[in-house]
């Protein structure tokens, strides 16, 4: 799983340094950026309509479906089911 800690270990820097450098360069924190990219990926999967919501969640890196629903709704303002049905 991609996390701040796994990235810091991979690049041999402290979590704090990586976090500060990433935010200075990208403008957002590592965790927020990872979450945003996962949500954008899940949204594209759901818009295509070729996978179930559960599969989209899993492919985007979320094992806990209830948590995926909460994060998705917070990000897009609608649930994955509402996006899927076109509401």
From TrEMBL:
<keyword id="KW-0238">DNA-binding</keyword>
<dbReference type="InterPro" id="IPR009057">
    <property type="entry name" value="Homeodomain-like_sf"/>
</dbReference>
<dbReference type="InterPro" id="IPR020449">
    <property type="entry name" value="Tscrpt_reg_AraC-type_HTH"/>
</dbReference>
<feature type="domain" description="HTH araC/xylS-type">
    <location>
        <begin position="1"/>
        <end position="86"/>
    </location>
</feature>
<dbReference type="GO" id="GO:0043565">
    <property type="term" value="F:sequence-specific DNA binding"/>
</dbReference>
<dbReference type="InterPro" id="IPR018060">
    <property type="entry name" value="HTH_AraC"/>
</dbReference>
<keyword id="KW-0804">Transcription</keyword>
<dbReference type="Pfam" id="PF12833">
    <property type="entry name" value="HTH_18"/>
</dbReference>
<keyword id="KW-0805">Transcription regulation</keyword>
<dbReference type="GO" id="GO:0003700">
    <property type="term" value="F:DNA-binding transcription factor activity"/>
</dbReference>
<protein>
    <submittedName>
        <fullName>Helix-turn-helix transcriptional regulator</fullName>
    </submittedName>
</protein>
């Amino acid at each position: 799983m991609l996390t701040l800690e796994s990235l810091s270990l991979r690049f041999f820097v402290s979590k704090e340094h990586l976090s500060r450098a990433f935010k200075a360069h990208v403008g957002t924190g590592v965790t927020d950026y990872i979450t945003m990219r996962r949500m954008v990926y899940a949204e594209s999967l759901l818009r295509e309509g070729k996978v179930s919501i559960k599969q989209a969640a899993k492919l985007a890196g979320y094992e806990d479906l209830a948590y995926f629903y909460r994060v998705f709704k917070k990000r897009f303002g609608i649930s994955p089911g509402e996006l899927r049905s076109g509401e």
